[in-house]
Amino acid sequence: MSDVKSITVKTILFDMDGTLVSSHAGVVGAWETFALKYPALNITEILKTAHGVRTQDNLKKWCPDLTEDELASESARFELEIVAAARRNVEKGGKGIELLPGVKDALAPFANGPTTGNPGWAICTSATRVYATSALKLSGITEPRVFVAAEDVTRGKPFPEPYLMGAEKCGVSPADCIVVEDTPAGIRSGIAAGCKTLALCTTYSREVMEATGADFVVEDLSQVTVSWPGDQIEILIRNSERPAPGP
Fold first, then answer.
1. pTM here?
2. Would you call 15 a catalytic residue per the annotation?
3. Which of 3, 17, 57, 176 is the catalytic position?
């Protein structure tokens, strides 16, 4: 028998990469390009923790000799390279920036949403606005009215600022929001902000995502049904699992 949980919230705060779209091929390609200039980069090690973290924070960690000016310019170059690498991959018959399972249906209730007040959903991403806008366009997602990008916050995920800002811009309390994320850093950000959290196993294993302490864990958004019949958004979560309590 299928396990179905029902919750209501006022707003859904989505991450972007790994949650709504997959840009993995482009990200790997960008790191490979950067390794030509910075040969000490260990891409395998970087990819273990880089997902869900702002590019500038990743480059600060892995290229510590960059000045602040260099960090800004290299961060912009990296994110443009993600799109370029994804396009090159598509030209070779591979994957580019693609919509993930269940996303189209999950966003459908917001297609004709209100033009003022709480929009019902927002994107809070660790990506820059330039890259995020390109990624959404390539994947066919309409840019939401509330859109928090890397440059909008002082401290990115796993700190709570991105989701606190998202809730504030939507005009709702964080306690009335659910954060949808695919990385440990993102889930920690949502928890720290005081939001409910839904973890997807689109980037990391179920074991890793359960260990984050997320309220719900599913494979992807195809296990989630969203409706917006009135003031409250109704969410059905199928086959979810709460992490087991510790000893």
1. 0.85
2. yes
3. 17
- The amino acid occupying position 242 is R
pLDDT in tens, 54-104: 898 999 999 999 999 999 899 989 989 998 998 898 899 888 899 999 999
Whether 215 is a known active-site residue: answer: no
Tokens standing for 39? 């040969």
Name the token pair of 24. 């993995």
On the question of pLDDT at 182 being above 90, the answer is yes
Contacts of 246 (CB under 8 A, 6+ apart): none
Provide the pLDDT for residue 2: 61
The domain spans of the chain are: 4-22+97-238, 24-91
Query: Which CATH architecture fits 24-91?
Result: Orthogonal Bundle (1.10)
- The single residue of 15, 176, 182, 215 carrying the catalytic annotation is 15
- In angstroms, the CA 164 to CA 156 distance is 11
**Alpha-carbon separation of residue 16 from 44, 51, 131, 216 (angstroms):** 22, 11, 11, 18
- Domain 4-22+97-238's class? alpha beta
Query: Would you say residue 245 has pLDDT above 60?
Result: no
CA distance 30 to 77: 9
